[in-house]
Amino acid sequence: MRRLSAVLLCATLLSACDDSEGAAYVPPPPFTQTYPDGGVSPDGGSGPESWACQRSAVVRGAPISLWVNLQLAMSRATSPEVRTAAIDQFVADVAAQGGTPLVSDARSGRQRVVFFARGDSARDTSVAGDFNEWSPTATPLAQVRDTDLFVAEVDIPRTGPHPYKLVQGGGFFEDPRAKHVVWDRLNRNAVGQFNSLVYPDAQDATKGRLTAWYGVHATVLGDARDVFVYTPPSYDGPECPTLPVMYVHDGNESITRESFVDAADAHYKARPQDAAVLVFVALPTQDVRLAQYTFAPARAPGWPAPKGDEYLAFLKDDLMPRVEAGFRVKTGPQDTGIFGASLGGLISVYAGFQFPEKFGFVGTQSGTLFWPHDGEVDRDDGNAMVLRAAQEPVVPVRFYVDHGSPATGCTDDGEQGSDDCQSNLQFIAALKSRGYDVAHVHEPSGQHDWSFWKKRLPKLLCVFRNTDAKVCGL
């Protein structure tokens, strides 16, 4: 009872209470939704404030004062409807001010963290993390009165970016309201999972970080998918750089199979001048991959209708404006790239030809470039992207193409271990015949596999930032 009274009194007087000791509470700099990592100059200028480029200022969970304010509102509520409205506002404020978990101010004497879940399905949910030795039962979420809100308040020291997951029925899963994540390092040889983070600002400053957007809606497709935005170490530096941006297909697997994030970190450490923001775009499910990464008229009996055009509409009309509003990224085709592996390479090349005003750089790794132009998949009468490169007007796009081949040399796409080398070489020849700027990496014995794409990724990242491929060793 004494604890509750103290909370309510503190909330009444300050609207925020973090059990601070010593100095008076000083609120953090303002958080802006439209340009959260750029800041707003207090004098009305256009340049970002240096504080807005520091992880300690912008890479954080929502303030615990929101929970204190909710407790106060609940104590005053006179009906279930009023309590529901208060919880609705609380959930919206958490999303707007950093996501879960809610954390105390760094200067507080007691470091409290609040986890929550909402809805009837959240019943019997717990939190497991390194702070409780990943126990699936040690930290249960408790129901708040007669509402559908379930909460756990825990003391967690600021000794690092503590990873955690939610747990229900013995199954571990991501916190859907958390914005700061890392791969959990479990290669499931399929779509992987992420750990959410407490104190994400404490991540290794020499490495990049991931911001998760769960359930991003695609207007034309009518589905939703997760997006993970990688910002390199220099992004959080005092210079407040605005960086080029590249969109990556198979956005979950490319992080959780053979981590492209690790490859990016290593490359940007060696060549910080190549730094870029990478937007990893996942699929709603693997079942839609063939449809969303291909284009008309190519169809075979039993294959889904191609929806590549609808997928690209999502990228350029739904996702790109959100990325450009939420991160310090350059705009315009010369600073915007797109790349993927296998079918992801195919849809990247298609995107470059369809929308050169959006994507000025295209990367394809072992691209499925045998995709035909006439809808008959098994006919050897012309590969669609090879024909476009050879016959259509030249577009202002730079290309990076890599692939493997059998050790004995490339003869046929159907040969064991070919890695689609024949159609990739035909594409390279067509590009060069028209004067395109193209960088080519051919790895003998290279296989159609994530480990090979990760190994070659630094070349792609380098070529994206350098028009002279010689500086990339090509």
Automatic annotation (TrEMBL):
<dbReference type="InterPro" id="IPR050583">
    <property type="entry name" value="Mycobacterial_A85_antigen"/>
</dbReference>
<dbReference type="InterPro" id="IPR029058">
    <property type="entry name" value="AB_hydrolase_fold"/>
</dbReference>
<protein>
    <submittedName>
        <fullName>Hydrolase</fullName>
    </submittedName>
</protein>
<dbReference type="GO" id="GO:0016787">
    <property type="term" value="F:hydrolase activity"/>
</dbReference>
<keyword id="KW-0378">Hydrolase</keyword>
<dbReference type="InterPro" id="IPR014756">
    <property type="entry name" value="Ig_E-set"/>
</dbReference>
<feature type="region of interest" description="Disordered">
    <location>
        <begin position="28"/>
        <end position="49"/>
    </location>
</feature>
<dbReference type="InterPro" id="IPR000801">
    <property type="entry name" value="Esterase-like"/>
</dbReference>
<dbReference type="InterPro" id="IPR013783">
    <property type="entry name" value="Ig-like_fold"/>
</dbReference>
<dbReference type="Pfam" id="PF00756">
    <property type="entry name" value="Esterase"/>
</dbReference>
